[in-house]
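User: Can you recover a sequence for this backbone? Please restate the input before giving your answer.

Assistant: Of course. Working from this structure:
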């Protein structure tokens, strides 16, 4: 899963909310968390799903969307791209 933030506080808030909701609502914890807001990239590893939270410029620079362009796309109701 790839998502973007427009600031370091927003990046941290997104990653924290994903981690909190999965832990509280589904008792799921990441096996690893890497990165920090100042790096402008946080990765939450849940084994079957890896969540990348990027600052917008870093996401454009690394272009993981292009790297994974042949992977199936999943549309989630209530989530905007």
């Amino acid at each position: 899963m790839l998502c973007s933030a427009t600031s370091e506080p927003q990046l941290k808030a997104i990653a924290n909310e994903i981690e909190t909701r999965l832990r509280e609502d589904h008792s799921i914890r990441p096996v690893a968390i890497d990165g920090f807001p100042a790096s402008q990239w946080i990765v939450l590893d849940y084994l079957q799903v890896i969540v990348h939270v990027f600052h917008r410029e870093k996401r454009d620079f690394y272009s993981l969307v292009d790297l994974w362009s042949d992977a199936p796309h999943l549309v989630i109701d209530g989530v905007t791209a």
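That completes the design. Helices lie at 8-26, 56-62, 64-67.
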